[in-house]
Amino acid sequence: MDASKAPSADGRFLGTVTAAACHDLMNVFATFNQALGLMDDCLAADAKTTRRTFGIKGGFAYRERFVELTAMLRGQLARAVGLTEALALAAHSLDGQGRAAAPPEALAALVALAERLLKRRKITAEVVPCAEDAPSWPPLRRADYLGPVLETLLACLPHLPMGGKICLSCRPDGDALVVTLAPGEGDLSEDALAAGLYAARAAGAAKADVAPGKTLTLVFRESPTTQPASCPPQADGAS
């Protein structure tokens, strides 16, 4: 790892407190899920009572509305859990703590966290599954490639057509990680390629090139010459 990429005190602080907050949020979401389950049980019991008594007892007047409400809340809760899990992965990208995540999963988490930024131009981002079943990924910190990939993606956005699509894919190449940004259809414009190349190189990609088909290819490597900066002990972080 390059010395310039050593996590700063600010980065370690934000990573630690964000991971801890994510852990607490997951506990809160679990409580919400239990409450929704109890509400479902009550509605089901009311419906059962109504059937058994031929409508004499039970029959909550707003049952259908409550069923719709709980379904909507479950959908939003699932989205909140997904965002929190993605945020926890990002929070641990500097210290390497938390649960292990292969680059495709880490890129999917990045796309989830950047969804609001993409929606400004109605852009859809998709992570293409790796062609190999169980590739051997290089030992890179997630921060070493997630940050540059995000910078590259944001630099390309103003030059993508409204309502367009961009696909991200990754593959191992020896001791390197290769990340490719490609349009959903057609080619990336010259302006998008130029902006993406500049952002990728400025953000620390070991190599950034325009590949055939007008796609951007970023290469990330771990430098064995510098030991990773030490981090303070993780306090009950989200995994």
Stretches with pLDDT under 50, minimum 5 residues: 224-239
By DSSP (H or I, 4+ residues per run), the number of helices equals 6
Q: How many structurally independent domains?
A: 2
Rounded Rg: 23 Å
Helix content: 40-55%
Element pattern in H and E? HHHHEHEEHEE
Instruction: Give the mean pLDDT.
Output: 84
What is CATH's topology name of the largest domain?
A: Heat Shock Protein 90
* Biggest sheet architecture: 5 strands, mixed
N-C termini distance? 24 Å
What is the overall shape? elongated
CATH superfamily of the largest domain: Histidine kinase-like ATPase, C-terminal domain
The helix/strand class is: alpha+beta
CATH architecture of the largest domain: 2-Layer Sandwich
CATH class of the largest domain: Alpha Beta
Number of strands: 5
Identify the strand order in the major beta sheet.
1-2-3-5-4
